[in-house]
Each structure stands twice: as structure tokens, then as C-alpha cells.
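Field log, afternoon session.

UNIT: design team B
ACTIVITY: writing a sequence onto a fixed backbone
BACKBONE:
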């Protein structure tokens, strides 16, 4: 049954307090990985997977809230955050990297959290290796949507050979303040509600991202992968992967999400064999950043 949760306010200030980081060699990539602070070693493991253009910092607040329940790690996927791009960065390739990361880091199935493209990657991971996943919490997962949208047109433009580079280069030439405001409006349901320290941390990460030499190519590659997933034949699609997921699933959608149309939520719930659904009317694309307490509560209910 779909549930409607009240919004408790803006993201907690924990969203600006970074977790300790380390480098983990996996699949020929030097992954930048952050560990949930102060979590006991005997807690069940968790993996937090960010979306396109995001990083491990997208999970900071939620990880702090759950450090009494899981010992989690959040990688910067290849081509994003502080992990360099060394090869393909599509959905399937990212899933391959995460499979090896789980096998290296954990000795039991992990609770997997995925946002946006990271949600799609997490679905592939759970369908391919059900023995590695104890539960899935999917926040605005990038599952194929039948309705065209502004974001779908953007993905199509970025994924188009030569045109994608032009679009991204022209975007990067815009003044940073203009791009920052546009990003806030695109990602958050109500940017005005963000605490100053969370807004500042988000801005700092966007400024740092401008210096990544691999950022543009990683974005193009990931956009092409998402676009391909939307035209894949049904029997090989992400929806077919969803039907093969064996573990409990918590789906979370935001009513103000401008990147993933929340109207797909009922189809998503029907597609997974064992799924719960939480709808946050005032949340945007990253509920774990904007309303981490609601995501925390939903996860605790899922595993209860």
C-alpha cells in the first residue's frame, strides 16, 4: 500500500559533515570510498549508490542517521566524485564494479541504497547477484518511463555523439552562480528550505566537480546508458530486472521531482515482487538529502 509521509523540514545539518574516506582498488579502478562514521563492526553492511553527476556526499546525512543500524560505505562511482574514469561508466559496468566492491568489503548480503542512476545500477546488481543484497531502498530510481519529459530530452541531447559534448561545454561556460541556482532548482523540491551549511557543502562539491578532467566524458557515457535502457526490449529491460529482484524493496518518490516523474511509482511497485512505496509530496530528486529523516524511517520499517 502506498503511504504518504509528512515532511519534517529541511535536511539536517549532518548533511554537511563528511564521512572519513579511503581508496579501494576494485576492477582496475581506484575507488574513492567513504565509511559511515561511528558504526559498530558487528552491524549488518550497507552500500549507498549515488546518481549521475552525484557523489558519495549525497548520502552524508542519511548515513549519520543510520550509523546505529548499519556499517555502510558509499563509493564515488567511476567517473564521478573523486574516482577517475578509467573505462565505460554505464549502468551495467557500474553494477560490475559494485559486485566486486561488495565481495571485497562484506562477508554477508548488504542493504543497498540507490538514487537516480544509482537506483538503476542497484536494480541490476540485485537481479544479477541476489546473494549479495539483503534489501533495496530506491530513491527516484532511473527506471524507463513511457512519458517524454524535459529531462529525457536533455539525456537524449547529451547522449548524442558530438552534440553531447557541445551541450555540456556550453553549459560549463555559463556563470557558476547561474548553473548553481539551476542545479538547486532541478534537484531539490524546495531549495529555500536547505540549511545554509548543507547548501554550502553542495555548492563546494559542484565547484570541485568543475575541475574533474573526466567529468564531461563520464556524464556523456552515463547519459547514453540511461537512454539505451529506455529503448531496450522488455525482456532485457530494467523492468525485467526488477521482476527478478528477490529481496524486500522500499521505493521512495518525490512529488516535486523534476528528473524522475513520480507518476511511475505505481508501476514500479507492481514490478517488484516485494515492494513498499513511500511518496513524499514536497520532496525533489534526492529525498535522502532533502528529507533524510523520512528515508531513515522508511528503511527502519522495511527491515523491521
Amino acid at each position: 500500500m502506498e503511504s504518504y509521509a509528512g515532511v519534517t523540514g529541511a535536511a539536517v545539518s549532518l548533511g554537511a559533515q563528511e564521512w572519513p574516506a579511503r581508496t579501494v582498488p576494485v576492477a582496475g579502478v581506484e575507488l574513492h570510498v567513504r565509511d559511515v562514521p561511528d558504526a559498530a563492526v558487528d552491524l549488518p553492511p550497507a552500500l549507498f549508490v549515488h546518481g549521475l553527476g552525484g557523489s558519495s556526499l549525497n548520502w552524508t546525512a542519511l548515513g549519520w542517521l543510520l550509523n546505529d543500524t548499519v556499517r555502510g560505505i558509499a563509493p564515488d562511482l567511476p567517473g564521478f566524485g573523486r574516482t577517475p574514469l578509467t573505462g565505460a561508466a554505464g549502468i551495467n559496468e557500474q553494477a560490475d564494479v559494485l559486485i566486486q566492491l561488495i565481495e571485497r568489503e562484506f562477508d554477508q548480503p548488504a542493504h543497498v541504497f540507490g538514487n537516480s542512476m544509482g537506483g538503476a545500477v542497484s536494480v541490476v546488481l540485485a537481479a544479477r547477484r541476489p546473494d549479495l543484497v539483503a534489501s533495496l531502498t530506491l530513491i527516484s530510481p532511473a527506471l524507463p518511463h513511457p512519458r517524454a519529459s524535459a529531462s529525457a530530452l536533455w539525456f537524449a541531447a547529451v547522449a548524442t555523439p558530438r552534440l553531447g559534448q557541445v551541450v555540456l561545454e556550453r553549459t560549463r561556460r555559463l556563470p557558476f552562480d547561474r548553473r548553481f541556482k539551476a542545479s538547486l532548482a532541478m534537484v531539490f523540491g524546495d531549495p529555500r528550505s536547505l540549511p545554509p551549511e548543507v547548501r554550502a557543502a553542495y555548492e563546494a562539491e559542484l565547484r570541485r566537480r568543475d575541475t574533474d578532467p573526466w567529468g564531461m566524458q563520464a556524464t556523456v557515457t552515463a547519459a547514453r546508458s540511461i537512454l539505451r535502457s529506455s529503448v531496450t526490449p522488455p525482456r532485457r529491460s530494467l523492468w525485467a530486472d526488477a521482476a527478478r529482484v528477490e529481496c524486500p524493496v522500499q521505493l521512495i518518490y518525490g512529488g516535486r521531482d523534476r528528473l524522475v516523474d513520480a507518476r511511475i511509482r505505481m508501476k514500479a511497485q507492481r514490478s517488484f515482487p516485494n515492494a513498499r512505496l513511500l511518496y513524499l509530496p514536497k520532496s525533489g530528486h534526492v529525498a535522502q538529502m532533502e528529507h533524510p529523516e523520512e528515508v531513515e524511517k522508511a528503511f527502519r520499517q522495511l527491515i523491521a
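LOG NOTE: The beta strands are 2-4, 21-26, 29-35, 45-49, 71-76, 110-115, 133-139, 249-254, 275-280.
NEXT ACTIVITY: expression trials, pending approval
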